[in-house]
Amino acid sequence: MRADTDRPKHVAIVGAGMVGLSTAWFLQERGCQVTVLEEERVAAGASEGNAGWLTPGLAVPLPSPGILAYGVRAMLRGSSPVHVPLWPDPQLRRFLGRFARHCTTRRWRAGLEALVPINRQALEAYDHLAGHDPSLVTHPAEPFTIGFRTSEQCQHVVQELEQLRTSGQQLSFDLLHATDLHSLQPVLSPAVTVGLRLHDQRFINPGPYVAALADSVKSRGGEILAPVRVEDITENGSAVTVTTSLGQRDQFDAVVLATGASLATLGRKFGIRMPVQAGRGYSFSVRAQVEVPGPIYLPAQRIACTPLDGRLRIAGLMEFAPHGQPPDPRRLKLLIESARPLLTGTDLDDREDEWVGSRPVTADGLPLIGPTASSRVFAAGGHGMWGIVLGPITGKLLAQTITETVVAPALTPFDPQR
User: Fold this and answer.
1) Are strands 303-308 and 254-257 parallel, antiparallel or unpaired?
2) With contact defined as beta carbons under 8 Å apart, do 410 and 121 qualify?
3) d(C-alpha 311, C-alpha 139), whole Å
4) Tens digits of per-residue pLDDT, 122-151?
5) Structure confidence by residue, pLDDT tens digits, 309-352
6) Which of 47, 33, 52 is nearest to 296 (CA)?
7) 72 exposed, middle or buried (CB, 10 Å; 0-12, 13-18, 19+)?
8) Which residues constitute the domain of residue 102?
9) Would you say the pTM of this structure is higher than 0.90?
10) Are 122 and 389 in contact (CB under 8 A)?
């Protein structure tokens, strides 16, 4: 553990999404001055238009036997909710090769066991934020509903949830037959015949929440610089120099890389070798003519629905494509047409807030959190679909690690140099 005189006093955080800003906030709580550098704007990446679910009960590694069974041939089809380009580039091919090697039962269970300790603490970290800033409150997801066309689909997910509970995941759910399901969630069409009600989960409106978190960091004396692109990071032993696109060369005691899908770009020189691929998701919002009391998950279609500010956000898909590539209108159309037969009382042709964002997906499905080959450079990213729910607990445990130089035990499986 560091002596107080050796602790970093001024830390730069590269990236102003949920993970980066959470790290900044918890570093401030430990007495650090923070400067956040963002290439675009606050919440510009995957933090903005996603479903906003705080569902640690569902946070599992993406590589799984089920994904492998789904098959590369299926993922190459344009109608698949998980999509790979027909001719992937060499970098994506290498990523998919390593991803496939992790799609075994043994590795998936090991990954789940690694996630359980931080999943258990995820909502407590949100409560800690809210306890210091009332603008950072969360909303109970009661009900949180999972819907299916058939009993067979439902039974398959029940078996998965039971397996999660056996691994230590905190989960409580009830079976819903058609009458109770549609009474609870009238926005679901008659095509959805059976469901589950998952308890003790929450949600937020992610864009405004991350903006409020940025305001909280600034109100506590933090600096947020945007748009500023970090061109290079170099260590000289006693400090780290950050060179930006503005030609500035500023020194810090430590740097945190929280750049989402582009994490490996700056991290490669510091020993980060785990491939991080953009797994793009799409969303839009519509007005619902019936009440939607809580989030809805349609797992067969990989569709997430969240009631936000009087509208219904519909999000989904997993598209492996280069970070920064323009949105594919065919993928957005697939999301719309997949949702159309399952929802009622919504006009899916009257859409607003169409969005695409790049989730940072690692080849083994686990985030990269902790020190790199440099004792002054730290990684915080690669959370895949779970950056929102795990952002605050990542920031809390990483701030502890940075200021004490002892890796928090829950972060051990997420070594950025693995």
Assistant:
1) unpaired
2) yes
3) 15
4) 999 999 999 999 999 999 999 999 999 999
5) 999 999 999 998 877 788 999 999 999 999 999 999 999 999 99
6) 52
7) exposed
8) 4-414
9) yes
10) yes
Length of the chain: 418
Residue with tokens 């496939």: 100
Both tokens assigned to 157 = 């997910």
Q: How far apart are CA 291 and CA 303, in angstroms?
A: 18
> In a 10 Å sphere around its CB, with 0-12 CB exposed, 13-18 middle and 19+ buried, how is residue 142 labelled?
middle
- Which amino acid is residue 291, in one-letter code? E
Question: In Å, how far are 127, 130, 206, 247 from 136, measured between CA atoms?
Answer: 9, 5, 11, 35
Collapse the DSSP code of 365 into the 3-class scheme (helix H, G, I; strand E, B; otherwise coil) and give the result.
Answer: coil
* Nearest residue to 282 via CA among 336, 343, 240: 336
Q: Which of these, 133, 150, 146, lies nearest to 217 by C-alpha position?
A: 133
Supply 342's token pair.
Answer: 């399952």
Amino acid identity at 174: D
Amino acid in the structure at residue 77: R
- Token reading at 363: 């080849």
Those residues whose C-beta lies under 8 Å from the C-beta of residue 88, and which sit 6 or more positions away, are 96, 320
* HEC letters along 250-303: EEECEEEECCHHHHHHHHHHHCCCCCEEEEEEEEEEECECCCCCCCEEECCCCE
Tokens of 272: 């980060």
- 298: domain CATH number? 3.50.50.60
| Contacts with 278 (C-beta within 8 Å, 6 or more apart), sequence order | 261, 320, 321, 322, 323, 358, 359, 360, 361
Of the candidates 250, 331, 342, the residue with the CA atom closest to the CA atom of residue 300: 342
Structural domains of the chain, count: 1
